[in-house]
């Protein structure tokens, strides 16, 4: 091999070897191998003696530039290495790290997600509907006749004589049944609005989840079974519960479900207002009038429905005593979930 090829080969070799040197030891090994007094660059310089005198000036130039190039690459690498590994004495490594702000899901979203995933695992689909509703879907089709006193229980924001902000997610049941023939098995989560005085216990907007199951031969015991498995999945299998008859225009018979107060275990406390029980949802068998309003054959089909307030469940669950905290977006509150 002539000198020129040797020089080229050595430069290549040095470049590869330097790229691989990432530790203090390998950098020192590199220096010894290429740049030290008996390194390969010096050895090439020694070979100058063996070549024809007229070639020496050219080869000498090449050798000098080889040495300069390897040296400068090596110096650069050392500089970088020192920069990367230098610990500034003014940094106190014993200080605790700065924690980063990690976003979380809003507690209402978390609670809704959990409720949804329980019902989805039981085979329910998820549906939604408009927040601006008409009187027909919000009331009439749900068996609230005009001027019925039950309408008073839902303080409504009217947008016009016929349009309103939905006061519950139950109208989505009507919309789903208008679009689909049985069997229907869906839950319907969403925002609802009530024109109530704002206080620690009520707010003008909140969230509900409605549920609906319609098919031939759906029974009240299936309603009970479904509600009980939901309650046990959500609150744990040792929770006690009771069904109490109540009235809703759109279900007959209807029930409110109570669970034993998880704060006091049923003895009576501030959370359960001393009676040991917490109301958590309303439910019942779909009223035949509701089936008639969507054109279902009420002789052929039966069904059950239920509805629950997400804020209420989240308030009880996390022991929060003011519903307004959910809407203030105070990071000190939200960070706790
Ligand atoms: N819509 C009711 C409310 O806002 C809750 C409800 C109760 C929904 C019973 C239902 C049900 O679907 O069957 O108070």
Rg for CA atoms? 38 Å
Described by the principal axes of the CA atoms, the overall outline is elongated
Give the overall average pLDDT: 92
> Order of strands side by side in the largest beta sheet?
1-4-5-9-8-7-6
Distance between the termini: 73 Å
What's the number of structural domains? 2
CATH superfamily of the largest domain: Bira Bifunctional Protein, Domain 2
Share of helical residues: 25-40%
Largest sheet: 7 strands, mixed
- What's the order of the H and E elements? HHHHHEEHEHEEHEEEHEHH
The total beta strand count reads 9
Q: Count of helical segments? A: 11
Overview of the molecule:
Helix content is 39%, strand content 20%. It is of the alpha+beta class and 337 residues long. The chain folds into 2 domains: 82 residues; 228 residues, 2-Layer Sandwich (BirA Bifunctional Protein, domain 2). The strands form 2 sheets. It has a 7-stranded mixed beta sheet, with helices on both faces. Strands 2-3 form a two-stranded antiparallel ribbon. Helix 1 packs antiparallel against helix 2, helix 2 runs antiparallel to helix 4 and helix 5 packs across helix 10. The longest helix has 30 residues. The structure holds 3,4-dihydroxyphenylalanine.
């Amino acid at each position: 091999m002539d000198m020129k090829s040797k020089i080229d080969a050595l430069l290549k070799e040095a470049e590869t070897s330097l790229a691989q040197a990432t530790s203090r030891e390998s950098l020192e090994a590199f220096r010894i191998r290429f740049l030290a007094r008996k390194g390969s660059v010096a050895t090439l310089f020694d070979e100058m003696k063996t070549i024809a005198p007229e070639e020496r000036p050219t080869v000498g130039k090449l050798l000098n530039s080889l040495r300069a190039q390897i040296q400068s690459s090596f110096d650069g690498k050392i500089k970088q290495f020192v920069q990367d590994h230098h610990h500034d004495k003014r940094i106190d490594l014993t200080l605790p790290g700065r924690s980063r702000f990690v976003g979380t899901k809003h507690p209402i979203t978390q609670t809704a997600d959990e409720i949804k995933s329980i019902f989805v695992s039981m085979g329910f689909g998820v549906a939604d509907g408009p927040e601006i509703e008409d009187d027909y879907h919000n009331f009439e089709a749900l068996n609230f006749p005009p001027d019925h006193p039950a309408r008073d229980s839902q303080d409504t924001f009217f947008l016009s004589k016929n349009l309103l902000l939905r006061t519950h997610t139950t109208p989505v049941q009507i919309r789903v049944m208008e679009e689909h023939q049985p069997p229907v098995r869906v839950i319907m989560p969403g925002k609802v609005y009530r024109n109530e005085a704002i206080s620690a216990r009520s707010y003008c907007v909140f969230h509900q989840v409605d549920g609906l199951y319609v098919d031939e031969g759906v029974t009240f015991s299936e309603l009970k079974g479904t509600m009980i498995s939901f309650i046990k999945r959500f609150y744990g299998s040792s929770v006690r519960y009771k069904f109490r008859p109540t009235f809703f225009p759109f279900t007959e018979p209807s029930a409110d479900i109570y669970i034993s107060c998880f704060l006091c275990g049923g003895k009576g406390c501030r959370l359960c207002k001393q009676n040991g029980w917490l109301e958590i949802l309303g439910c019942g068998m779909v009223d035949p009038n509701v089936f008639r309003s969507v054109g279902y054959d009420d002789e052929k089909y039966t069904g059950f429905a239920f509805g629950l307030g997400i804020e209420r469940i989240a308030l009880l669950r996390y022991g929060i005593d003011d519903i307004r905290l959910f809407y203030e977006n105070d990071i000190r509150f939200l960070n706790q979930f």
